[in-house]
Amino acid sequence: MKYDAIIVGAGFAGMYMLHRLRKAGFNATVLEAADGVGGTWYWNRYPGARCDVKSIDYSFSFDDALQQEWEWSEKYATQPEILRYANHVADRFDLRRDIRFDTRVAAAAYDEQTRDWHITTTAGEQLTAHYYIMATGCLSVPKAIDIPGKERFTGETYHTADWPREPVDFSGQRVAVIGTGSSAIQSIPIIGAQAAELTVFQRTPAYSLPAFNRPLTADEVRTVKANYAAHREKSRYSLFGVPDRRMDVGALSVSEEERQRRYTEGWESGELVAIMQQFNDLLVSAEANETASEFVRNKIRAIVKDPETAETLCPKTFPLGAKRACLDTNYYALFNEPHVHLIDLRQDPIETITANGIKTAQRSFEFDAIVFATGFDAMTGAIVNVDIRGRDGKTLRDKWADGPRTYLGLATAGFPNLFLITGPGSPSVMSNMMISIEQHVDWITDCLEHARDTGIDTIEASADAENEWVTHVNDVAAGTLFPRANSWYMGANVPGKPQLFMPYIGGVGPYRQKCDDVAAHGYAGFTLSGADAARPASAG
Question: Which candidate, 365, 361, 364, places its Cα nearest to that of 350?
Answer without folding.
Answer: 361
